[in-house]
């Protein structure tokens, strides 16, 4: 039994398509808490995180938007996750992926206090390894991995509190990387399991290889699950769709393997935009995936009308 702590992050300032701020409400309506309770976990919903006043900050990149708001969100989410981790498994209900600027930082603070290394598995179509200085879109949801690595170019954000070594990061399901991100990935020792790797090797071998490293190091594992990790044919409620994503069964297999490892200590659910959904289809799928992560077996699937 795990004590699950729900934290809402109703934010969509990290990109330009409004709607992700409705994500936490959609997860609650889709029965996330009830799913966890049915699996014999305890649930504490701490409500939505509230950022403090946006500081008067600027940066050298004129493309960046909502910078003050994102600095405030990052501070608030770092503290919320660091405060929750001693009490259980925080599940952060987003919100766009810029929330991971704060959630991974909070996990890093806690892991350092525990004297254990932090590992991150990034389930996403995108590598999100731009910096505040290099982003051309100005969308800060494309920067969390670079921040977690401790790369430069993040003024005026506070320094990342204990940067995650590249070898402690696994990107899984990647299939949309621009040239600048490709160059950054080549310069850093990160495990990148793109869809070509998964097509050739399958899901199990690459994921188990990474999980074995986490276990051998007595590491803590932060999982960041982006809706666009999934193929848009099964998960339409995201503003950054990329064809060729994980299938229903592949996604559930990833979650089942993560559960069996017993290593997951914190979880992000990001980029759900209910405004783009079809009768809650994507929200329900994401909740079902959390169910698999928390112990639901393959033969326990609920029947759906679609």
TrEMBL record:
GO terms for molecular function: arginase activity. Keywords: Arginine metabolism, Hydrolase, Manganese, Metal-binding. It holds the Pfam family Arginase. SUPFAM superfamilies: Arginase/deacetylase. Its EC number is 3.5.3.1. NCBIfam families: rocF_arginase. This is Arginase. It comes from Paracoccus fontiphilus.
């Amino acid at each position: 039994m795990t004590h699950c702590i729900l934290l809402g992050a109703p934010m969509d300032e990290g990109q330009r398509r409004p709607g992700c701020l409705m994500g936490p409400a959609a997860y609650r309506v889709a029965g996330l808490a009830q799913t966890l309770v049915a699996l014999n976990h305890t649930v504490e919903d701490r409500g939505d995180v509230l950022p403090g006043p946006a500081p008067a900050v600027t940066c050298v990149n004129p493309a960046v938007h909502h910078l003050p708001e994102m600095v405030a969100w990052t501070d608030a989410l770092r503290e919320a996750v660091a405060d929750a981790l001693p009490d259980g498994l925080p599940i952060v209900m987003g919100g766009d992926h810029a929330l991971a600027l704060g959630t991974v930082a909070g996990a890093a603070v806690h892991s350092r206090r525990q004297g254990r290394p932090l590992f991150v598995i990034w389930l996403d179509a995108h590598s999100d390894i731009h910096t505040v200085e290099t982003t051309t879109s100005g969308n800060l949801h494309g920067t969390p991995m670079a921040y977690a690595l401790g790369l430069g170019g993040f003024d005026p954000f506070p320094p990342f509190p204990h940067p995650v070594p590249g070898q402690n990061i696994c990107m899984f399901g990647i299939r949309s990387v621009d040239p600048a991100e490709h160059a950054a990935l080549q310069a850093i020792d990160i495990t990148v399991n793109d869809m070509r790797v998964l097509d050739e090797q399958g899901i199990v071998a690459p994921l188990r290889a990474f999980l074995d490293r986490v276990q051998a190091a007595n590491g803590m594992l932060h999982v960041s699950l982006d809706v666009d990790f999934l193929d848009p044919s099964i998960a339409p409620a995201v503003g950054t769709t990329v064809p060729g994503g994980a299938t229903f069964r592949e996604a559930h297999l990833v979650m089942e393997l993560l559960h069996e490892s017993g290593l997951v200590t914190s979880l992000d659910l990001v980029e759900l935009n209910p405004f783009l959904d079809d009768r809650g289809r994507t929200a329900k799928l994401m909740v079902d995936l959390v169910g698999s992560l928390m112990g639901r077996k393959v033969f326990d699937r609920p029947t759906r009308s679609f």
